[in-house]
Design a protein that fits this description.
The chain is α+β, with helices and mostly antiparallel strands. Helix content is 41%, strand content 17%. The protein has four domains: 177 residues, 3-Layer(aba) Sandwich (Rossmann fold), CATH 3.40.50; 120 residues, Beta Complex (Methionyl-trna Synthetase, domain 2); 172 residues, Isoleucyl-tRNA Synthetase, Domain 1; 90 residues, Beta Barrel (OB fold (Dihydrolipoamide Acetyltransferase, E2P)), CATH 2.40.50. The strands form eight sheets. The protein has a five-stranded parallel beta sheet with strand order 3-2-1-13-14, sandwiched between helices.
Length: 682
């Protein structure tokens, strides 16, 4: 039997304060987190829903450098914009904090010192690149060079964007500083590391064995892959001038790594909430009767399922997450959301373009939630779901029921004189929906829960249509009373059950019915509205979204794409080579026979290819552009006489030819007609 908790601590990933919120953030994290928090509150549970802005790290300094202002000015701007957007959209945080706040600096410093004094860190001195002109150590992203694995000339110090291999700056060939363009020098520096390898056995017991059956498959699989392949010590400090300064005397110029300080922001936010409300924050983080749930996107799984739990375990006094229902990514019009390309639907712009339509976007993002795999948002689907589901099913049923009640009974809820079989069966079916929706929400299946909500509206719509009270009124007014009473009870149940999903709609509907703020336990009741009670005049819950409205949004995206294309600068041709050098390359056509993700990498796929000459293994950095299962059987061009090299311990015997546009998008260079494997490309 599931454990009964006294309180719930719900965290949502801290959005990075270097840009606005977009629909990918909402679908992946904030809408499901808000649904869950609202649902629990309606059940009478004690809930602390935490949010805040992540304001440290290299991307902030890069953004500030590009704009010629300070990092603090950057985070101040975006923190306020993000916070306001969340408020207008109805994300019901109990506290929305920020990691530049003094209380967070104090909390993170104290957390670090606790682990330091207990001897939980490893101290290492190593060599790191230093920019002599700017007189500072270089963060990994401030170092570029040639990838040692695929020879990509613009690889970063932490990862090659071309082949996806994780790197260290020392592995780069011809490294250069992104600040000055100069060749950096190596200089000794000291840092502190969290020895994650020492937590492997515990993580294996806690997650791999303990959460095999209750964590989402996509989350569990990623965590298991990391643990199975072995963990390494991870630096908790870095040389940077923006962030939380390491609270040690011999740590001048060093700050806490953002991956270490950011999750502690959940704790400092709880402290901030405590100061404002007078409530004690400690039980929410340290009482075993509290349930901790992290809502995040898939790019944060490792940090919230391995690293942060290891930090909490090392500290010793905090509870561990009971679940981490991470979502996959949401795409936009069949293309990956990209902030750099402005390929996104920004929340602050949506709120301006579609006033009072917060619930429409909440509905569409939940209906299309990328719960176990990437999903796609299109403006046409947005329009269709509003017009065909919210308006035609939910809104239509509510409006017809209330209009008829006012028309036939002056807005007074009629009494059931005699309950017939149709009414009895409909009410019995209605009573099942709260349990169905609860069962889905308790298991973090938000799409499934929402589908049951709209099914309840379908039930009401069908019942009202089948009974045809507009005809019955001429011959059997008593039966019309029963029909409208049953319909009104379904409307009242919708007013209760829709609140976690569609809070603005639910409140409007509750006001029309004259209901006080309901509890979840009210749902399923066939007498929420008492006979003789007067309801208010109906208002339209949803409005039709016209073609012109979505066409304007699609055009905005097309204009963005056009602007991006106009900004494209093609790389210049490389230096001339002799014909004999070209002839040395043996490029053949082949077919992908097998494909699988390389564990602990974002971009690498391990491919088995029939080259016509043989069957061989090739490791390719295309996982962000193609799913393994989608490319089996794909015809490709492969350089077969490239010397083998190891990528992540796998010997790669050749290279797939890919075309890369200036935006970094990859696509196969494939024959346009069917040719046999092994055909030479000349």
């Amino acid at each position: 039997m599931p454990k009964k908790f006294k309180r719930y601590t719900i965290t949502s990933a801290l959005p990075y304060a270097n840009g606005p919120i977009h629909i990918g953030h909402l679908a992946g994290v904030y809408v499901p987190a808000d649904i869950y928090a609202r649902y629990l509150r309606m059940k009478g549970e004690d809930v602390l829903f935490i949010g805040g802005s992540d304001e440290h790290g290299v991307p902030i300094t890069i953004k500030a450098r590009e704009e010629g202002i300070t990092p603090q000015e950057i985070v101040d701007r975006y923190h306020e914009q993000i916070k306001k957007s969340f408020e207008e959209f109805g994300i019901s945080f109990d506290v929305y904090s920020r990691t530049s706040a003094p209380i967070h600096h104090e909390t993170a410093s104290e957390f670090f010192l606790n682990l330091y004094k207990k001897g939980d860190f490893i101290e290492k001195t190593n060599q790191q690149y230093y920019d002599e002109e700017n007189q500072q150590f270089l963060a990994d992203r401030y170092i570029t060079g040639i990838c040692p694995h695929c020879s990509y000339e613009k690889a970063y110090g932490d990862q090659c964007e071309n082949c996806g291999t994780s790197l260290s700056p020392l592995e780069l060939k011809n490294p250069k500083s992104a600040l000055s363009g100069n060749v950096p020098v190596l200089k000794e520096t000291k840092h502190w590391y969290l020895p994650l390898d020492q937590y492997e056995e515990w993580l294996n017991d806690w997650i791999i064995k303990g959460h095999k059956d209750d964590w989402k498959v996509n989350v569990y699989g990623q965590v298991k892959s990391w643990v199975d392949h072995g963990l390494k010590p991870r630096a908790v400090t870095r040389d940077l001038n923006w962030g939380i300064h390491v609270p040690l005397e011999d740590a001048e110029g060093k700050v806490l790594y953002v991956w270490f300080d950011a999750p502690i922001g959940y704790i400092s936010a709880a402290k901030e909430w405590s100061k404002k409300t007078g409530n004690d924050w400690i039980p929410y983080w340290k009482d075993e009767d509290s349930k901790l749930v992290h809502f995040i996107g898939k790019d944060n799984i490792v940090f919230h399922c391995i690293i942060f739990p290891a930090m909490l375990k090392a500290e010793g006094s905090y509870i561990l997450p009971d679940n981490v229902p991470a979502n996959e990514f949401l795409n936009l019009e069949s293309d990956k959301i990209s902030t750099s390309r402005n390929w996104a639907v920004w929340l602050h712009e949506y709120l301006k373009d579609f006033p009072e339509k917060q619930d429409v976007l909440r509905y569409v993002l939940t209906a299309n939630a990328p719960e176990t795999k990437d999903n796609d948002f299109t403006w046409k689907d947005f329009q269709a779901r509003n017009n065909n589901e919210l308006l035609a099913i939910f809104g239509n049923f509510v409006n017809r029921t209330l209009v008829l009640t006012h028309k036939y009974f002056d807005g007074v809820v009629p009494a059931i004189i005699e309950i017939d079989a149709e009414a009895k069966n409909t009410l019995e079916e209605m009573k099942l929906f709260p349990g169905k929706i609860s069962n889905s929400l308790d298991r973090y299946r938000f799409r499934e829960a929402l589908s049951e909500l709209i099914n309840l509206a379908r039930l009401g719509n069908k019942y009202l249509t089948d009974m045809e009270p507009w005809k019955l009124i001429k011959t059997d007014e008593e039966k019309v009373k029963t029909v409208l009473n049953v319909s009104l009870q379904i409307v009242a149940n919708l007013a209760v059950l829709s609140e976690p999903f569609l809070p603005f709609t639910a409140r409007k509907l509750q006001n029309m019915l004259g209901m006080t703020p309901p509890k979840w336990a009210d749902a399923g009741n066939a007498e929420i509205l008492k006979s003789g009670q007067t309801i208010n005049k109906p208002e339209l819950l949803f409005a039709r979204i016209e073609d012109a409205e979505v066409e304007a949004q699609v055009q905005r995206l097309l204009d963005t794409k056009k602007e991006n294309e106009q900004m494209i600068t093609v790389n210049p041709a490389k230096e001339e080579i002799a014909f004999d050098d070209f002839m040395k390359m043996d490029i053949r056509t082949g077919t992908i026979l097998e494909a699988e993700k390389v564990p602990k990498t974002k971009k690498l796929l391990k491919l088995k290819i029939n080259t016509g000459i043989d069957q061989r293994t090739v490791v390719s950095g295309i996982a962000e552009y193609y799913k393994a299962e989608d490319i089996i059987g794909k015809k490709v061009s492969i350089l077969v006489n490239l010397a083998p090299r190891k990528l992540r311990g796998i010997e790669s015997q050749g290279m797939i030819l890919m075309a890369e546009d200036t935006d970094g998008q990859l696509c196969f260079v494939s024959p346009t007609e069917d040719v046999s494997n092994g055909s030479e490309v000349k």
